[in-house]
């Protein structure tokens, strides 16, 4: 996004990856953390309450700890010290926790993390929120190509992949029911 790619194969993929890293970094730096809605704090508490009401004691405690970490990062971001790092970490924590919970079949936990992340992102300025969504969409498409380029045949040919490598990567990325 916004960077010129001058290499092919593995080096080109690295340039694209660096471009995404730079775009996300610039976006997080542009956010005024003090302007993030207090609604996010309320949703963190509601997430903990929902976990306690709907899950076992240990699972609820784990979610509570994770959401407490998010709350700490949010408070640190609002002080202005390394705000971009804290804001980015919040997004990463929530995304990774939702993804892991989903993979592990922990539907309630995945829903809680996803909802908190959605409210967090929606509490950002509309333009920032929209830009994050756009970057995420572009990154998902790039990730399919990156997966295709990481197959054995593509690695042996320095990142050049075949149509069958691409089809395989698309199948892995397809989350819909009944895929072949």
Strand and helix layout:
Blueprint: H1 9-29, H2 39-54, H3 57-79, H4 83-103, H5 107-122, H6 126-149, H7 152-156, H8 163-173
Helix pairs in contact: 1-4, 1-6, 2-3, 2-5, 3-4, 4-5, 6-8
In short:
The protein has 180 residues and is mostly helical. The chain is built from eight helices and no strands.
Q: Measured on Cα atoms, how large is the radius of gyration?
A: 19 Å
**Quick check: average pLDDT?**
87
Through-space gap between termini: 32 Å
- What's the total number of strands? 0
Secondary structure: helix percent: over 70%
Main β-sheet, in a few words?
none
Number of helices: 8
Instruction: Estimate the global geometry from the Cα principal axes.
Output: globular
Query: What class do helices, strands and sheet pairing give?
Result: mainly alpha
Secondary-structure element series: HHHHHHHH
Percent of residues in β-strands:
under 5%
**Unreliable parts:** none
Description:
With 180 residues, this protein is mainly α. It is built from 8 helices and no strands. α4 packs antiparallel against α5 and α6 packs across α8. It is globular.
């Amino acid at each position: 996004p916004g960077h010129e790619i001058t290499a092919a194969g593995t080096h080109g993929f690295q340039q694209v990856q660096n471009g995404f890293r730079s775009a996300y970094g610039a976006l997080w730096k542009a956010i005024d953390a003090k302007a993030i809605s207090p609604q996010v704090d309320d949703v963190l508490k509601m997430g903990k309450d929902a976990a306690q009401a709907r899950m076992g004691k240990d699972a609820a405690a784990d979610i509570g700890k994770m959401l407490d970490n998010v709350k700490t990062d949010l408070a640190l971001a609002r002080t202005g010290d390394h705000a971009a790092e804290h804001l980015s970490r919040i997004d990463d924590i929530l995304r990774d926790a939702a993804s892991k919970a989903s993979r592990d079949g922990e539907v309630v936990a995945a829903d809680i993390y996803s909802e908190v992340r959605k409210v967090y992102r929606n509490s950002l300025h509309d333009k920032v929120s929209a830009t994050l969504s756009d970057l995420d969409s572009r990154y998902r498409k790039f990730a399919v190509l990156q997966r295709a380029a990481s197959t054995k045949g593509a690695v042996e040919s320095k990142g050049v992949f075949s149509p069958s490598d691409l089809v395989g990567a698309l199948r892995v990325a397809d989350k819909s029911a009944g895929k072949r």
